[in-house]
Each structure stands twice: as structure tokens, then as C-alpha cells.
Design brief:
Length: 127
């Protein structure tokens, strides 16, 4: 068994798509638009076959995103090496996103950084 995809609602579908394309080499599909409900989405595919569906519709909630809330809290991307973690973290920092930890080796042995990415969502970058 494997997870087929993860999905998230976003406020700005195009900006979110471009964020994942720019920093994580996502490959977007052509997108989907349901004319009746005005639901829109993209599936973003990553190198290893993982997929993220980003979605938007007129009626949605935009609750605050605290780092200790229950439920899904972050998405993690493995970039292959410590140098790649360092380089991507610095690129994202220079582009104005907050780095909230790292890069560092965690107590359980991961080399990672955590950022607050597009629309306040936490993203973990690991080797």
C-alpha cells in the first residue's frame, strides 16, 4: 500500500503552483476546472512519483496555522544531501520566506531545515 497523493486547499492556486515548481521541481498537470462549482485544482508530481493536489474553490475556510495544531502539520521533501538542504534553505530564505529551524541534525538523526512556505504552511527540507 502507498499514499496516492496529499491534497491542500490554497487561496492562490497559481502562486502556490509556481512555489512548488520553483523550489521543489514539481511538474504540474494542465489543471482542472469544474465550471459548475468553480472548483479548480492542479496535481503536482515530484521526481519519486509522489503527488500533491492543490485546490481552490470560492467557499473555503482559512483558519490560522499554528505550528502545534492537531492534524497535518507539514510536508517533507528529501533533496538528497546536506549541501542540497543548505542551498535550498538559503535560496528560500533569500526569497523572503521564514526559516524556523536549521539546517541542523535533529535528535533522531535527520539533517533538515523547516520553513514557513507558501500561505503559511510548514515545509521540512531533509537530505
Amino acid at each position: 500500500m502507498r499514499i496516492e497523493h496529499i491534497a491542500m486547499y490554497v487561496n492562490d492556486l497559481e502562486k502556490t503552483k509556481e512555489f512548488f515548481v520553483k523550489y521543489f521541481n514539481a511538474i504540474p498537470n494542465e489543471g482542472y476546472h469544474n465550471q459548475k462549482t468553480d472548483f479548480r485544482s492542479y496535481f503536482l508530481s515530484f521526481d519519486d512519483g509522489a503527488r500533491l493536489e492543490i485546490m481552490n474553490k470560492p467557499q473555503r475556510e482559512d483558519a490560522g496555522k499554528t505550528l502545534t495544531r492537531t492534524g497535518y502539520i507539514h510536508i517533507a521533501f528529501s533533496v538528497g544531501s546536506k549541501d542540497a538542504v543548505n542551498e535550498l534553505t538559503e535560496k528560500i530564505r533569500k526569497d523572503g520566506y521564514s526559516v524556523i529551524s536549521g539546517p541542523r541534525t535533529t535528535g533522531d538523526g535527520y539533517y533538515e531545515s523547516c520553513i514557513i512556505g507558501i500561505e503559511g504552511n510548514q515545509i521540512e527540507i531533509t537530505e
